[in-house]
Amino acid sequence: AAGQSADLLNDFRAGHEVGASPARQVIAQCAGVVVGSLVGSLVYLALITDPDTQLLTQEWPAPAVATWKAVAETLGVGLSGIPFSALIAMVIAGAIGIVLALVERRVDGQRLLLVPSGATLGLAFVIPAGTSITLFLGAALASLLHWLAPRWAARFLLSAAAGLVAGESLFGVVSVWF
Q1: Using the 8-state DSSP alphabet, how is residue 117 labeled?
Q2: Averaged in consecutive runs of 10 residues, what is the pLDDT profile of the chain (178 residues)?
Q3: 6: helix, coil or strand?
Q4: Can you count the helices (H) and strands (E) in the chain?
């Protein structure tokens, strides 16, 4: 839920950047939740017929499942299951998130581009490093394209990026059958 909430907040920020109406974004997100839940569940049931033996294997590594499984097992014994240094890191990360949110409210215009997203930084710590690096490289490429071809980037970059993400996801599902 936390990851999805962060994604939705980033979607609002991206929508704001392209001038989308917040009300229409909410409608689109609610429709996406319904359709995504139905389609995602059906695809999951078709692909993963026996989760106990299929998930967390070489074929279906399911990194998000592994991450949250580890969190659930650790917290199953309470906060004593978390190393003291991790508790300190959590407090520091929480403080940094609050500071970033406050700075984001005070900074405007071009300087806002220099303020990292607290949600994105937090997400980078719970997804695989390869995914975080790929996201960073995509963002760096997008920034370069905004600098080299600002009109093209303003018009096509968001759609191109969404197409690449959707295509990669679909390829991952289809490749299982071949």
Answers
A1: P
A2: 66 80 87 88 87 82 77 84 89 92 86 83 80 86 92 90 82 75
A3: helix
A4: 9, 0
Is the pTM higher than 0.70?
Answer: no
Residue 52's SS3 state is helix
Question: Where are the chain's structural domains?
Answer: 1-54, 64-127, 128-178
How many whole angstroms separate alpha carbon 115 and alpha carbon 101?
9
Give pLDDT, residue 92: 94
DSSP 55-104: TTSSS---HHHHHHHHHHHHHTT-GGGS-HHHHHHHHHHHHHHHHHHHHH
> Which residue carries 């997100």 as its tokens?
29
CA distance 137 to 121: 15
